């Protein structure tokens, strides 16, 4: 095994967005079993350190490939495409306008304690995300268009953040209800 | 992570929150967003006949540092010409608000928002 190999090779998966998550789980468990520190409790320090490095690498790889957005970012990174997630703030104005409207709606529903509306927003966003991930899969695996895929990933970063905010708002309302 | 006193002040008492009609004479609108944090910022300037920025408004969805950065620049640009407004650097914003390194992108967002607003104003003005 080679510590410098990319995560797809590490788990013997094709370098693609559409991967078999069942296979990923199985390979991850195999590696985990092989490098588990307990197996090397009586080995020399060098071997123990190496098994630790492998366990860390496998964890990092698993988390990267398991989540679609992280997997897409990693694929683009391997292909040499920089997302410029911090440095490039230019996005299509219509997209940003939509983001403002989404956030406004979430804030209003949260401050109004409107559980139903938050559930509705959550549902709508989930559908939107699903469509975008399908589009992203096609851009990465079929059309092989990294520029368009980069733009879609940049947009998905906003939407995943938004999803967290809606979850957070729902959780805070539920906490409030329990207090009452 | 703790916020600086100035960030908290701008966050709790944001200056110039709101907006202008984007089609109004002399109004320039800048919309920017940072994928890294999912923050969205809209910054508008109202420019007089003499090219001086009379008023500025913002609306930001994001963390305290992003809100403080946009609030601060709306204060700074008032009374400046559009050319002077373009000279505002994110490093000045970050320094004024004592932003930690992980929040530098919030100041970049504010600088880019001003630049986008001025660009929009110039584009409308030249038409």
Description:
The complex is a heterodimer of chains A (180) and B (127). Chain A folds into 2 domains: 7-66, Orthogonal Bundle (Helix Hairpins), CATH 1.10.287.110; 93-179, Monooxygenase. Helix content of chain A is 74%, strand content 0%. Chain A is built from 7 helices and no strands. In chain A, helix 2 (21-35) runs antiparallel to helix 3 and helix 5 (93-111) packs parallel to helix 7. The longest helix of chain A has 34 residues, at 146-179. Chain B starts with a helix and ends with a helix. Chain B is globular. The mean pLDDT of chain B is 93. Chain B has 127 residues and is of the alpha+beta class. Chain B contains 5 helices and 3 strands; from the N terminus they run H-E-E-E-H-H-H-H. Chain B has helices spanning 5-12, 64-77, 82-86, 90-97, 104-126; strands at 27-34, 39-47, 53-61. The A-B interface holds A 83, 85-87, 89-91, 93, 95-97, 99-100, 103-104, 153-155, 157-158, 160-162 and B 31-38, 40, 42, 59, 61, 105, 108-109, 112-113, 116.
In which range does the helix fraction of chain B lie? 40-55%
Residue share in helices of chain A?
Answer: over 70%
Low-confidence stretches of chain A: none
* CATH hierarchy class name of the largest domain in chain A: Mainly Alpha
* Mean pLDDT, all residues of chain B: 93
Share in β-strands of chain A: under 5%
Count of DSSP E strands of chain A? 0
Oligomer: heterodimer
How many domain units of chain A? Answer: 2
N-end to C-end Cα span of chain B: 47 Å
Task: Please list the strands of the largest sheet of chain B in the order they lie side by side.
Answer: 1-2-3
Q: What structural class results from the helix and strand content of chain B?
A: alpha+beta
Shape estimate of chain A: globular
Q: What is the name of the CATH architecture of the largest domain in chain A?
A: Up-down Bundle
Largest sheet of chain B: 3 strands, antiparallel
Report on the biggest sheet of chain A.
none
Number of helices of chain B: 5
- Please tally the β strands of chain B and state the result: 3
* Uncertain segments of chain B: none
Number of helices of chain A: 7
